[in-house]
């Protein structure tokens, strides 16, 4: 119809065209006619074989030519044409999967001038035969699957393709599971399911590592070939990881199960044995213990990594007096959460009805549904030490109280109900050996005068300790401390730090300092009042100022060199005075730095020199008074 229209258009526009429309149409028709042939793919020989003839009207001698796929385009050299007869020859096999159609151009040319007379398209359809099996995208899948995986879990994709002609039986295939090794138990079923473009392997029911840790599933894809059916398989290996689908079971208990009261430190008391059917060493096997009913957290439990035993320790000492038995319960679970799966019912379609239990739902319950064992720990009574309440007492006494003064009484008590112990009180620390303790009553009295100024007294406190020793086996000891606070008395007189001093001879009054102290505390101590005794000191010696801790002894220039003894009275704040001899050496310091140096080095020589001088002077005086001796 279209061709006709084109012809009419051309006729209208090109009136001068010499050929009739009829003829044009005919010729054009020849060019556009598409001849078609069919060749079955993979056709066995012999070759060449004749495919057929293309008929064209031959008014004059023509030569036939063929171009395109199969001749000078891929697949080259399969087809040829007999130039004289127009007969098409096939020289080899064709493959539908490579080319399902060959397109060629057939030409008839004028044999004399080689001008194309007729040109037409030729299509050669390649007929499919079933020469391709369906092929899987992957031939092997290896999958690690947790035992706790839920049914319906997608295991693997088992997609396949068939290269044969689509929408024909040769290119259409079916998938099915052909074998499962080993045969799954009746609560497990593997199946294929198509979702969209994807074919997957899934399972329904429950996985159980203990029944089989591995399944090998063979899936076959088989086409619906009319003459032959072709197939291939794909293998899926499913390794099932062992999950925790067995709880540990208590099997026994070893160890004394008893502990001495007050045993301190971590003491193991007993071991609990369990067995677990899961793979040894895995988290599904390793036991985890929990103690219940241990109000004061006296116990702790650990898992022995070798044996999986629960080792119960006493981490905080127990007291027999709180009861001789401790009842505990110990529950056990695994490090990995527990998991169990049970098939309750099967429906013909869809997944089955399964009941799963997971770890959280076990421990969340009170009491937990975990295996639990009652254990009783016996607390053995041991001799309790005597106890002083209070263990520290203070007592205050005046210092210098008379010997035998009562200070305090300590009484120990015994917490033991079984052992009715009697105690002996013994003195511990008493550095000045100043007190005595009655061994029966614990009464403490003094045996010496207590001196607040004693070096054993620190900050007015003298400390003694005492022990109460019971008669248990082994004997136990309790300790108490008595702090004796000593009240000060004015039992010490002012003292001088230095009573011997040197002073230099000088024309001016000179001074040296004097420092006093008193062992007593305030108000029995300084500042002190100083007073020089004797009448002969007037105009020679004085104290300035005469009040304080350190004052000056002032020497007037009327004092000559030599040794001077002065009597100084020093009074404390209460007016209690003490006399002290002051020994003052006055010397001429002009030659040497001070008297001490003079005494140490030059004084003897000096003195003898003075003696010689005096002797010489006396001799000279004798001459002057008596005249020279007769014998001279
Ligand atoms: C399918 O293949 C067979 C040969 O195996 C062939 O005879 C048949 O014609 C093919 N069918 C289709 C629809 O191609
Ligand atoms: C499988 O189990 C392991 C440990 O038991 C866990 O870490 C992992 O997340 C699980 N995998 C799946 C897919 O649940
Ligand atoms: C502990 O258990 C023992 C025996 O099982 C029982 O005789 C005792 O009364 C229990 N003690 C306590 C404090 O529950
Ligand atoms: C005993 O005296 C000390 C000071 O020496 C004081 O710290 C302590 O609290 C006193 N103890 C009692 C029981 O009075
Ligand atoms: C007292 O004299 C000595 C020696 O002369 C000196 O070291 C000391 O500092 C003096 N003390 C006072 C309080 O002046
Ligand atoms: C002072 O010295 C005299 C004589 O040497 C002596 O009798 C007296 O006891 C001394 N006084 C003191 C307080 O030392
Ligand atoms: Ca387990």
TrEMBL record:
An annotated GO BP: convergent extension involved in gastrulation
Listed PROSITE patterns: CADHERIN_1, CADHERIN_2, PROKAR_LIPOPROTEIN
Residue intervals of the Cadherin domain: 61-136, 137-250, 258-388, 389-496
UniProt-listed SMART domains: CA
Leader peptide range in chain numbering: 1-21
Molecular function via GO: beta-catenin binding; cadherin binding; calcium ion binding
Listed InterPro entries: Cadherin (IPR039808), Cadherin-like_dom (IPR002126), Cadherin-like_sf (IPR015919), Cadherin_CS (IPR020894)
Keywords noted in UniProt: Calcium, Cell adhesion, Cell membrane, Cytoplasm, Glycoprotein, Membrane, Metal-binding, Repeat, Signal, Transmembrane, Transmembrane helix
Compartments, as annotated in UniProt: Cell membrane; Cytoplasm
Chief location category: membrane
Sequence intervals crossing the membrane: 605-626
Residues forming coiled coils: none
Protein name: Cadherin domain-containing protein
Organism this protein belongs to: Coregonus suidteri
Taxonomy of the source species: Eukaryota, Metazoa, Chordata, Craniata, Vertebrata
